[in-house]
Specification:
Length: 136
Amino acid sequence: MKLGDDEQKLAEYYFKGTGDVSNMSVLTNRRLVVIYGNAEESYPISKITAVKVIYNRIIWMIVIGVLLALFGLAMIGDNAGAGLVGLAIGAGLVYLGWKGKTHLLIKQMGGEKYYAVRGKDKALQDFIESVNSKLS
């Protein structure tokens, strides 16, 4: 990302860990930039109508995980190996579903754009507070 004349970084957020510059979001005094993979999207501050953080747990993943874990427990008596695998996969699905996802929502006149992060991310919430203070 290249900064323009008189453009300054105000805040930044790394989607996949500090230092991963290929998956980050940067707030400048003029725009909000989201960089992911080989793409870069730029949202001028004047065009953004709202920026929100939405957190939710993945209920369907929890339900399937519980069912798979129960099935695995039932199978342990007949086939311990398959039962333990089912139990482990079910427990993993329950964990991921409970951990949930945090979505960064950017609204502008042309529509909405979502960016997702696994888990409840305090750093993303802090970044959005910086963006919202710039919008007001």
